[in-house]
Write a structure and sequence with these properties.
Elements (H helix, E strand, L loop, with lengths): L2 E9 L13 H10 L4 E4 L8 H8 L5 E9 L5 E5 L3 H12 L8 H4 L3 E3 L5 E4 L12 H10 L3 E4 L9 H5 L10 E5 L3 H8 L8 E4 L13 E5 L4 H9 L5 E3 L5
Parallel strand pairs: 1-2, 2-3, 7-8, 8-9
Antiparallel strand pairs: 1-10, 3-4, 4-7, 5-6, 10-11
């Protein structure tokens, strides 16, 4: 049976060096439940090491945590990768780590903490997660799709790391599954601002780096369950699945 799901598909944990250290998996799950979210995706920069702990923190609770990652391409464009299964985001992580030069300097870029579902620190990531991989945009999208994931262009309405601000356009042959806009714009305004992209599905997410922002950007979707398979159907408007547009989330 189809029902409406409230989704925030772009949330960072304290593993991302630009995120607040209070963004632990446990705290994110608690805030998501408070905001009455049904589906969230953990999308740290170029890593997925805190995803498993967010999933554990949500176990037995009315919240689906999708494994995700925000990949930075060599053009310094951000892409969200969304998966149904943890093993696939781990495979993406291995590929990203092999193509991510540099070592993190916590004094300059910030702490990259791996924190479990009990708020215990498991360790610290040494990769330069704030940096760019050597994947081109096309290569990154292809790898995400090869692993069965969805590829979404992050915050296309922003200058920082947005595909339109960096390239000036979205390549017509780039096989993106959807486009994300920030809560500052929202889907309704995005439809007016980017009228030429009318064929593409839009989602709105929080891109939360602070606990207060979790759930600030929400996409309402009509789905059968909380899964990437269902999201893909909603993006394509298949079998009654859809993104609910035109009203407040």
């Amino acid at each position: 049976m189809l029902r409406e799901f409230r989704c925030d598909l772009h949330i960072h944990t304290c593993l991302s060096p630009c995120a607040d250290l209070e963004m632990s998996p446990k705290a994110i799950v608690e805030k998501s439940l408070k905001e009455k979210l049904d589906i969230i995706a953990i999308c740290d920069h170029n890593s997925s090491e805190n995803v498993v702990y967010a999933m554990k923190a949500a176990a037995g609770k009315p919240l689906v945590v999708l494994p995700g990652m925000e990949v930075t391409t060599r053009e310094e464009v951000h892409l969200i990768a969304l998966f149904d299964r943890l093993e696939y985001v781990k495979k993406l992580q291995a590929k990203v780590y092999n193509r991510l030069p540099g070592v993190n300097d916590e004094r300059i870029f910030g702490c990259q903490a791996v924190v479990n579902e009990l708020d215990e620190v498991e360790g610290f990531n040494d990769h330069l997660l704030i940096g760019a991989t050597i994947f081109s945009i096309e290569e990154a999208v292809a790898v995400i799709h090869e692993l069965g994931g969805l590829a979404v262009a992050s915050h296309i309405d922003r200058e920082g790391f947005g595909i339109i601000s960096h390239l000036g356009f979205i390549p017509p042959d780039l096989k993106l599954d959807a486009l994300e806009v920030s809560a500052a714009m929202g889907i309704t305004e995005a439809r007016r601002e980017f009228a030429e992209l009318y064929r593409m599905p839009f989602i709105e997410s929080s891109d939360a780096h602070f606990i207060r922002d979790v759930g600030k950007g929400v996409t309402r979707m009509c789905l059968g369950e909380g899964s990437v398979k269902e999201l893909k159907m909603a993006f394509r408007k298949e079998q009654g699945r859809c993104i609910v547009e035109g009203s407040h989330a």
